[in-house]
Amino acid sequence: MDKRRFFLEIAYFGQSYHGWQVQNNAISVQEVLNRALATLLREPIETTGAGRTDTGVHAKQLYAHFDAAAVGILTKPDRFIHSLNALLPFDVAVKRLIEVADDAHARFDATHRSYEYHLHFHKDPFIYPYSCFMRDRPDVDKMNEAAQFLLGKQDFECFSKSHTQVFTNICDIRRAEWLWHNEQDLVFHITADRFLRNMVRAIVGTSLEIGLKGKPASFMQEVIKSKSRGKAGVSVPAHGLYLTEVAYPYI
């Protein structure tokens, strides 16, 4: 029987997972999704995600594709989503099932991706898993000045995790901005065509070197030009980071 290609839109709270991608000795979001799909469709299913998220990182929107015969429950999207969510743990949710062209690809067809990093400055045990607590407020105007150096197509090796197997460190950043939410929570918004491993958390750490430790806004440009991970700031904790959007020309 001919198989068709489907996209799933999912969201997850990443605290219990070692990132998106299947690993040998740790639980991942992809593993629990593949297992639930195989149970529901009664055949082995392998998903391909729009990209990786690291251990502890959350996703408000991520797409993954899989191939299966378009019969039975797959012809009834609402029922399919309800049944699949019943098989998934509480911290992983499926939002949409979309049938796409057979050559559509969740990773390679994405035109841009957006992330948010959340900081809060009032100690609150109920929001700690969702945002990074900081005691001191940074100079947001200076951090936004520094963020301008991130824009455009550049080599961002300085913000990449060491020894990653990627074909290029070039990324095209289209938005980089710090905004206050409710005058208490600070959120970094960033959009690019692609991201390197650990890139957003390293950018936030470097921004805080500028906003809290007195480095000039031009320090961001200095770090980028150095291409040295050792020059950039320390990566901030994973639990404040969210993948918020993955965009496609046909969705």
UniProtKB/TrEMBL annotation:
Keyword presence, Isomerase: yes
Active site: D54
UniProt keywords, alphabetically: Isomerase, tRNA processing
Catalytic EC class: isomerase
Domain Pseudouridine synthase I TruA alpha/beta intervals: 146-249
Substrates-to-products reaction catalysed: uridine(38/39/40) in tRNA = pseudouridine(38/39/40) in tRNA
Signal sequence residues: none
Residues where substrate binds: Y115
GO biological processes: tRNA pseudouridine synthesis
GO molecular function: RNA binding; tRNA pseudouridine(38-40) synthase activity
PANTHER family: PSEUDOURIDYLATE SYNTHASE, TRNA PSEUDOURIDINE SYNTHASE-LIKE 1
Described function: Formation of pseudouridine at positions 38, 39 and 40 in the anticodon stem and loop of transfer RNAs.
Family: Belongs to the tRNA pseudouridine synthase TruA family.
Oligomeric form and interacting partners: Homodimer.
NCBIfam families hit by this protein: hisT_truA
Protein name, UniProt field: tRNA pseudouridine synthase A
Organism: Sphingobacterium athyrii
Gene name per UniProt: truA
